[in-house]
Amino acid sequence: MTQTQTNDDPVQAAGCVLWRRSPVDGELEVCLVHRPKYDDWSHPKGKLKRDEDPLSGALREVAEESGYGAVPGAELPTLHYEANGRPKQVRYWAAEAAGGAFAPNDEVDRILWLPPAAARARLTQPRDRTLVDALLESLHLA
């Protein structure tokens, strides 16, 4: 049975808090993406395609926005908020970067790899900051 989307149904999206060990000092770094359309810094995320598994969608969005493959880890808190007058639900996972390279595209013009405290400070939306804390907890670093 197919359900139709109404304006009351949340927009379904997914993403990852992408992390790696710094190639310089081995310390934890978090990837943030800059979206020129919104002039904001956020975690890689995006809307799910019809019938797309949320984790598959999260990994697809990471690859599209950051250029990196990712190895998924723990599921992180789901964020609920309003966007463009509609409720939105974004599921997140911790994900370790697994090779790749960033190339600017229409959606994302820059990425940054930052230590967790700097990533928290750079994130545009306060709600995204809790995901950095959740990542640290999932990696037993909090």
Description of the molecule:
The structure is a single chain. This protein has 142 residues and is an alpha+beta fold. It has one domain (11-138): Alpha-Beta Complex (Nucleoside Triphosphate Pyrophosphohydrolase). It is built from three helices and seven strands, in the order ββββαβββαα. Strands 1, 2, 3, 4, 5, 6 and 7 form a seven-stranded mixed β-sheet that branches. Helix 2 packs antiparallel against helix 3. It is globular and about 50 Å long. The model has no long low-confidence stretch (mean pLDDT 94).
In short:
By secondary structure, the protein is α+β, with helices and mostly antiparallel strands. The protein is 23% helix and 43% strand.
Structural class: alpha+beta
CATH first level: Alpha Beta
Order of helices and strands: EEEEHEEEHH
CATH A-level architecture? Alpha-Beta Complex
The coarse silhouette is globular
What are the low-pLDDT stretches, counting only 5+ consecutive residues below 50?
none
Please report the distance between the alpha carbons of the first and last residues: 44 Å
> At the third CATH level, what is the topology name?
Nucleoside Triphosphate Pyrophosphohydrolase
Largest sheet: 7 strands, mixed
Which whole number gives the mean pLDDT? 94
Enumerate how many helices there are, as a single number.
3
Supply the number of structural domains: 1
Oligomer: single chain
